[in-house]
Amino acid sequence: MDTKKLEALATAVQTGSFTRAAEVLGYTQSGLTHMMNSLEKDIGFPLLVRSRTGIRLSAAGQRVFPMIQDLLRADETLEREIRLINTRREETIRVASYASIAMHWLPEIIQRFRDNHPDVAVDVQMGSVEEVYHWVQEDKADMCFASWQEWFTLDWTHLRNDPLLVILPPDYDMQGRESLKVQSLQGMDFLMPSPGFYLDIMHALGDVKPNIRETHVSDSVIISMVEHGLGASILSELVLKGRRDNVVAVPMDPPAARELGIAVRSKKELRPMARRFISETKEILESI
Questions:
Q1: What is the pLDDT tens value at each position of the chain, 288 positions in all?
Q2: Terminal Cα distance for the chain, rounded
Q3: Last residue of a domain, one of 55, 86, 117
Q4: CA–CA distances in Å: residue 121 to residues 27, 118, 127
Q5: Closest to 94 in 3D by CA, of 129, 145, 152
């Protein structure tokens, strides 16, 4: 079956119009109409209902359209695999990551993985939460190490919860307490970190409303600003790991954490070696 015709059908259904679909695909409207008529002749029954307001799937079209979508996805996977083999990218796993994960997790993970698979390279690129997710969606990365975000549509593998800590100026009086009640942040100047933390922080704050100051700086700059008394903030245990800054860093009360994991476009379409990298990552993280 001609996948070009099936792709044209999917575009027509998505746009609801032969005219708009033809514009998207770069065809003439008459050419696209002829293509759809030819497809229906090949299949043996009408797939579309035409009207003055546009087109929609027929009852029979609704039955077979999910299978057509599966076929198109499989064709895309095959084409991508052929490109990978032709460019020898099958020997490289492309990983996107936050800087904190790239610093504290990936060196150990990559070293152990390479010990087991010396012929496979791991290419790492660092970015913000939006960047790493978009790189996966655009097939510029096989996977991303990131925090779970409710807006993303990728397949997810949970790795570990990363506790959130309140970061306070060095002269803040904890009065002997080992954690800070979230209510204590009410009305306090608060430096909001990068967007990757925003949803986790807002969930942890609940009804508490500090005086939020939006920032567009790195985590290190946030810590420096807190150290100089410009406000409080919330970062994660992993971000602060190994640092010796002159700030007070304590758990929240009640405790809060961000969920860290690996996002991929589709677990079913993932190459075998990339799936192996994920499974070995889970094993390695249990020991570090």
A1: 688 999 999 999 999 999 999 998 999 999 999 999 999 999 999 999 999 889 999 999 999 999 999 899 888 888 877 776 666 555 789 999 998 899 999 999 999 999 999 888 899 999 888 899 999 999 999 999 999 988 888 999 999 999 999 999 999 999 999 999 999 999 999 999 876 688 889 989 999 999 999 988 888 999 999 999 999 999 999 999 988 899 999 999 999 999 999 999 999 989 889 999 999 999 999 988
A2: 51
A3: 86
A4: 41, 8, 20
A5: 145
User: Which residues is 161 bridged to in the sheet?
Assistant: 259
**Paired strand residues for 165:** 235, 251
Same domain for 269 and 164 = yes
Query: In CATH, what number is assigned to the domain containing residue 206?
Result: 3.40.190.290
Residues 73 and 160 in one domain: no
- In angstroms, the Cα distances linking 9 to 34, 61, 65, 72, 246 are 12, 10, 9, 11, 62
Q: Report CA-CA distances (Å) from 98 to 6, 22, 149, 165.
A: 38, 40, 14, 18
CB 233 within 8 A of CB 222: yes
CATH number of the domain that residue 58 is part of: 1.10.10.10
Query: What range does the domain containing 245 cover?
Result: 92-288
Q: Of the residues 86, 112, 140, which one is the last residue of a structural domain?
A: 86
Q: What is each CA distance from 189 to 153, 208, 214, 226, in whole angstroms?
A: 34, 12, 11, 10
Q: How big is the CA angle at 227 (ends 224 and 229), to the nearest 5 degrees? A: 115
Residue showing tokens 């209902």:
49
H or E segment to which residue 168 belongs: strand 155-168
